[in-house]
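Let's practice the habit of predicting before peeking. Look at the sequence and jot down your guess about where helices and strands might fall. Then scroll down.
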Amino acid sequence: MTKLKINLTPPVHECFHRVLYSDTDAGGVVYNANYLRFFELGRSEFMRELVISYNEMENQGYIMPVVESYLRFKAPAHYDDMLIIKTAIQDIKEVSCRFNYQILHKENNSLLVKGFTVHASVNRQGKLKKLPHDFIDKLVRLKV
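Done guessing? Here is the structure:
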């Protein structure tokens, strides 16, 4: 069993998602791959509220594909559960960054899933492209 540290250091952004029927599998629990969608929801809202929207980044010629991901499942979520998605930036480099996540059950605050995603910064042709200095500066200032 992998024992990776998934710490959430401030600022930690929180958003919510109510589990839809379409999020679940035949066993009545959230299908495992959907947690990556929930990570994306948390990351998109983190970026929109604290840094820059992904739409604005793409308009400036930057795309941030996932190049690595990790999920550790602790407990299942079910249809109609309200989830808290916590997101924090972990590492910021010239051409990549890492976000850490925790997904909790809102009713009892129990940890359901933790994990991370690493994103490369590329142009529309898929070539690595250094993140803009103002973007990096905003992220670094958030970490202070």
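How did you do? DSSP finds three helices and five strands in the chain.
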